[in-house]
Specification:
Helix content is 74%, strand content 4%. It has five helices and two strands, in the order H-H-H-H-E-E-H. The relative contact order is 0.12.
Length: 168
């Protein structure tokens, strides 16, 4: 029984390692962002430099893989991906938070007047409502917050386009 489990574990490890090696080779072969560079360049209107994948065409596959692993552009692309992972998480949280706040500012007058829903409710008895005179301020504030944040997101996208073009 134990031998069968060990064999199954070894088999799974071998399959995982086999797939991981192929994924790494494929990842290096695509230069970690040729497609991403073209997509970013098209969306942001920033020209991404084009480089040939290999300078010498008569190399064997292992020499090509070695050349890719030694190329500084490969490592800059991997560093860019790691930075993008962290920044993308921060941007997503910021984006969802700010846009939900701005939409709630716009929706508060409708929800309070038509459906009698409070802004804050604590337990069953305590309900907080915004005063009626603040409705125009809330709607204007929500629209301004939405507009300002959309322009800020566009600026951040352009900065990322410049950063990506320098990684190449």
């Amino acid at each position: 029984m134990g031998c069968d489990r060990f064999f199954a574990f070894r088999l799974v490890c071998h399959i995982y390692l086999w797939l991981a090696i192929r994924f790494v080779v494929l990842h290096l072969r695509t230069r970690t962002g040729i497609v991403g560079g073209a997509t970013s360049g098209g969306l942001l209107g920033i020209r991404m430099p084009r480089r040939p994948l290999f300078t010498q065409q008569n190399l064997k596959w292992f020499e090509r893989l070695k050349e890719l692993a030694m190329d500084r552009h490969t490592w800059f692309s991997i560093l860019y991906m790691l930075i993008q992972f962290v920044l993308g998480t921060i941007y997503f949280v910021l984006f969802v938070t700010v846009l939900s706040i701005s939409l709630s500012f716009i929706a508060i007058p409708v929800l309070q007047e038509l459906f009698n829903l409070p802004t804050i409710q604590v337990g069953e008895g305590v309900r907080y409502f915004f005063p009626t005179w603040s409705y125009p301020l809330l709607v204007i504030g929500g629209i301004l917050l939405w507009t300002i944040f959309m322009n800020l997101a566009r600026g951040i996208g352009q900065l990322h386009g410049r950063m990506q073009s320098h990684c190449w």
